[in-house]
Every structure is written in structure tokens, then in C-alpha cells.
From TrEMBL:
HTH marR-type domain segment(s): 27-77
Protein's name according to its UniProt entry: ROK family protein
PANTHER family for this protein: GLUCOKINASE, ROK (REPRESSOR, ORF, KINASE) FAMILY
Source species: Paeniglutamicibacter gangotriensis Lz1y
Family under the similarity heading: Belongs to the ROK (NagC/XylR) family.
Annotated PROSITE patterns: ROK
Taxonomic lineage of the native organism: Bacteria, Bacillati, Actinomycetota, Actinomycetes, Micrococcales
Length: 404
């Protein structure tokens, strides 16, 4: 029972103006719980309520200290951002990368309250990496005064395809050491909280519609270009998992029939021409010394011709692959993430050329292409959003049954 119900035990009659207002208030609260901070204009678009109704509801909720309003910039204009005020519960997000682990804490108002990252050795063992993440989570809870055992849960991002029937990483992952291991059980034991495991690209996509610039976007493709290449799909406002949960493996779509052999066993996959691993390998071979991703970014921004040529070839190939996705699902937006994000238009321009060359003209013209503004934090932010969104759904559907 809410405080409002206790103060006024007489429930409004169904269909009355008071009942309608309560329903609209709950719709606004639920929307903020699912999306995080939104402007009043965005709230109106998502809920379907008029801007005047939204304005009145926000004023009422702010007076009750259920939401907080702040001045923000939206599409270049000043606007009023609305956020839930609910700091009692906390969720964690943990992103395991090929060479790092990142831990974040956030509350149901989608407020980030702690963030940390540590390097991991290439080819890290599951047990060692989980132990590091567990220590980082304990330290984050200590810094924020959070009772770790009362966390809502921990979302976990792993760079590889995950069979959702078993929650195990399958062959073809960037972290082959993690294949076939019951990661869920090990994480639950080490962290002491419920865990939800997902592919890192799926979480990158979820982050875009939760924390990024596309919070009102209902159909979106997120593409992460790193040591491997993966994508996450948002269809009709929700992550798309397909039959087994193994979706978005665009890095293993064939671009050149006679290309290099890929780690998946096929030939000429997108990863063999556009991943950061192949870019650094080609430049290292050409120069006779190791070249890092950071070197690629620095040289490209300085106008190095060899580096720009490799980026151009990779971008066109990525655009070609994205065109096939765009022709199939016709998304509103495609967002590029990963360590090459600082390149901005240097990478986006060839991707756009490849997309427009191979997509149906109307689809290519109607699909906006963006670089993610969340950088290397996207996957961890998506991981914590996975927990918060699930918790919000459970609160809104109290009769839903779950199996053990």
C-alpha cells in the first residue's frame, strides 16, 4: 500500500477524473523507470499523453518528491529533464572485455553512483577475472555505503554468443577460455547476488535506448567494432534474442568469398576485414613493429594515408554488412560503438558510403547513422540497465509467475 493510499483510503471510482490522473501518473513513473531521465517532450511522445498533461503530472510528482527536474539540452535546445527519485535500491553492471573489466552501480532512477575499471591480461582465466570483478564490486559497495547482499542483481556482459537455454558462451567467442563454462553459477557464487548474463553487443544496444541519445528510438541496431564485431538489435522497443538467443553475429557474415579464414571456420567474414585485430595486424606487418588501436586513432586523426586507407576499406565493408541488416529490419538508427569511436566521421563516412551503396535507396536514406557517445562504458551501462528494467517490469506485473 502506498503512502497516498494510506492517507486517503477511499479509492477513486473507476473512470473518474481522479482515477484517470492516477493511471497517467503511473504511466509516467513506469516510463521513467524503463528509460531513465527523459525530457517532458520525450515523455509526451513515449506515453502518448499531451504536453500539458505531462507538465501537470511532473509538477505534482516533483511536489511529492517522487521525481527531480533538471535543465538539459535536447536536439540543441534547452529542455526540462525528468528523473525518478528512488535511491533505496541499487543494481550492478559488470562488463568483461578481452582486456578489461568494468563495474558500475546505479539506482532505479537510472542514476550512476559508482564506476571503476581495471585491465585484464589477454586470455584471462574465468576464475581469475570473476575474482577481480567480485573484489571491485565489494569495493564499489563499500565506497557508496551499499549493502552488497541487498543489491537488486548484477547484469553481466560477455563478448561472445550466448545460448540462452544454458546461459553458456558458445564457440566463436572472443574469450575462448570462457566457452562451455557455467559462468552463471560461478558469478552467482562469487558475487552473492542474482545475475543476468548477456552478450556485450546486446547490452550496448540497450544502453543506447536507456542512457544514450536514442531513448525514444524503438528500432535500432548497435554495432560494436573491436577485436570482434557484434551487433545488438532493438525491435519494437525491446532487445531481440531470436530462437536461441544467438543473434547479431554480423561479424561472421561473409563479405569476400575468397577472403581469409575466420576463427568461426568460415572464409571472408566481416571480422577478417574490419575488426581492430585485423587493422592492427595489417599495420604492424607493414611497419615491422607492433601497432595498437590507440596508434590507429592517433595516426588517423593526424592524416596518415596508410591508416586512413585501412579505416576506409573497413568502413565500407561494415556499411555493406549493415545494409543487409537495414534492408531486413528497416531500423530508425544504427549506432557504432567500440574503441574506434573517437574517429567520428573518419569512420562513419565510409560506413555511410557502404550502407547507401548496398541498401535499398529509401531504407538507406531513412536510416540515421551515429557514433555512440557512451564510449567504452556502453556495455557496463547496458548491463546495469538490464537489471533495472527487469526489476521495473516485475514491479509492474506482480502476478507474473517465474520458474526456478
Amino acid at each position: 500500500m502506498t503512502d497516498a493510499t494510506r492517507a486517503n483510503p477511499v479509492s477513486p471510482k473507476p473512470g473518474s477524473q481522479s482515477a484517470l490522473r492516477k493511471l497517467n501518473e503511473q504511466r509516467v513513473v513506469d516510463t521513467l523507470g524503463a528509460h531513465g531521465t527523459l525530457t517532458q517532450a520525450e515523455l509526451a511522445r513515449v506515453t502518448g499523453l499531451s504536453t500539458a498533461t505531462i507538465s501537470n503530472i511532473v509538477k505534482s510528482l516533483a511536489a511529492e518528491k517522487r521525481v527531480e527536474t533538471t535543465s538539459v539540452t535536447s536536439s540543441g535546445r534547452r529542455a526540462l529533464g525528468v528523473s525518478l527519485l528512488d535511491v533505496a535500491d541499487v543494481a550492478a553492471g559488470i562488463d568483461f572485455g578481452r582486456s578489461h573489466v568494468r563495474v558500475v552501480l546505479a539506482n532505479p532512477g537510472f542514476r550512476l553512483i559508482d564506476e571503476s575499471s581495471e585491465p585484464l591480461p589477454i586470455g584471462h582465466r574465468v576464475e581469475d577475472s570473476i575474482a577481480i570483478a567480485a573484489r571491485m564490486l565489494t569495493e564499489a559497495c563499500r565506497r557508496t555505503g551499499t549493502d552488497q547482499h541487498r543489491l537488486l542483481g548484477a547484469g553481466i556482459g560477455v563478448p561472445g554468443p550466448i545460448d540462452h537455454r544454458t546461459t553458456m558462451v558458445i564457440n566463436g567467442a572472443i574469450l575462448p577460455e570462457w566457452v562451455g563454462i557455467d559462468i552463471s553459477a560461478q558469478l552467482h557464487s562469487a558475487l552473492g547476488v542474482p545475475v543476468i548474463i548477456d552478450n556485450d553487443s546486446n547490452l550496448g544496444a540497450l544502453a543506447q535506448i536507456t542512457w544514450g541519445e536514442h531513448q525514444t528510438c524503438t528500432n535500432l541496431c548497435f554495432l560494436k567494432i573491436g577485436s570482434g564485431i557484434g551487433s545488438g538489435l532493438i525491435l519494437n522497443g525491446s532487445l531481440y534474442y531470436g530462437h536461441l538467443g544467438i543473434t547479431g553475429e554480423i561479424g561472421h557474415s561473409t563479405i569476400f568469398d575468397q577472403g581469409l579464414i575466420c576463427r568461426c571456420g568460415n572464409r571472408g567474414c566481416l571480422e577478417t576485414v574490419a575488426s581492430t585485430a585485423i587493422m592492427t595486424e595489417m599495420l604492424s606487418h607493414a611497419e615491422g613493429k607492433p601497432v595498437s588501436v590507440e596508434d590507429i586513432i592517433e595516426r588517423a586523426l593526424a592524416g596518415d594515408w596508410a591508416t586512413l586507407r585501412i579505416i576506409d576499406d573497413a568502413g565500407v565493408a561494415v556499411g555493406h554488412a549493415l545494409a543487409n541488416v537495414a534492408n531486413m529490419i528497416n531500423p530508425e538508427a544504427m549506432v557504432i560503438g567500440g574503441p574506434l569511436a573517437p574517429l567520428g566521421e573518419l569512420l562513419l563516412e565510409p560506413i555511410r558510403r557502404g550502407l547507401n551503396r548496398h541498401a535499398i535507396p529509401a531504407v538507406g536514406e531513412g536510416t540515421s547513422l551515429h557514433m555512440s557517445m557512451l564510449g567504452d562504458r556502453a556495455e557496463a551501462l547496458g548491463a546495469v540497465a538490464l537489471v533495472l528494467r527487469q526489476d521495473g517490469a516485475n514491479h509492474r506485473q506482480p502476478q507474473r509467475k517465474t520458474t526456478s
